[in-house]
Amino acid sequence: MTTMTCKKEDTTNCFVFEGKMALPNQYFVGRLGSKFIIALRDKKKILGLKCPKCKKTFIPPREYCHFCQTKIDENWVELGNEGVLVNYTIVRYLGKHLPKKVPYILGQIKLKGADTPLTHIVEGVDFKDVRIGMKLKAVFAAKTTNTLLDLDHFEPL
């Protein structure tokens, strides 16, 4: 690490500090997110929340319906472990925060019973063969992490 102060004629009294800084943090997912993660971890089940008014089902769960603004925080439903790829990208940039070694496929999967897609990792398919509309199934992690990565990835059926 190096420190460099500004010149004396600089009246703003500034300095530059070069180095690396770690900012470890934890994120509390809240009551709804906790129930969702616990179901992934303990039961290997994917849960969503269904709006009683317009019947839309959301994953990841949220407190209010984004369509009709009805509170939906108690209407849990079990979703299927299979779905369809509705969008994807290939992640190629480096970063310590990334869940997998690059490059990898990050897809949006619309699960059976859901009206919104879940964004997650797709494995088991070559980059040139991935396509919108392909059918995928959930693969749960062998070791729990108490995060969304308890659902390790999706792979082709």
Entry keywords:
five-stranded antiparallel β-sheet; mainly beta; 9% helix; 10 strands; three-stranded antiparallel β-sheet; 157 residues
Q: Could you tell me the number of beta strands?
A: 10
Strand content: 25-35%
Q: Total domains, how many?
A: 1
Strand order of the largest sheet: 8-7-6-9-10
Please explain how this structure is put together.
The chain has 157 residues and is mostly beta strands. It has one domain (28-156). The chain has one helix and ten strands, in the order ββαββββββββ. The strands form three sheets. A five-stranded antiparallel sheet has the order 8-7-6-9-10, with no helix packed on it. A three-stranded antiparallel sheet has the order 4-3-5, covered by helices on one side. A two-stranded antiparallel sheet has the order 1-2. Strand 7 (104-111) and strand 8 (118-122) form a beta hairpin. The radius of gyration is 21 Å and the shape is globular.
Itemize the secondary structure elements and their pairings.
Blueprint: E1 2-5, E2 15-18, H1 30-43, E3 46-50, E4 57-58, E5 76-79, E6 82-91, E7 104-111, E8 118-122, E9 135-140, E10 151-156
Antiparallel strand pairs: 1-2, 3-4, 3-5, 6-7, 6-9, 7-8, 9-10
Structure at a glance:
With 157 residues, the protein is mainly β.
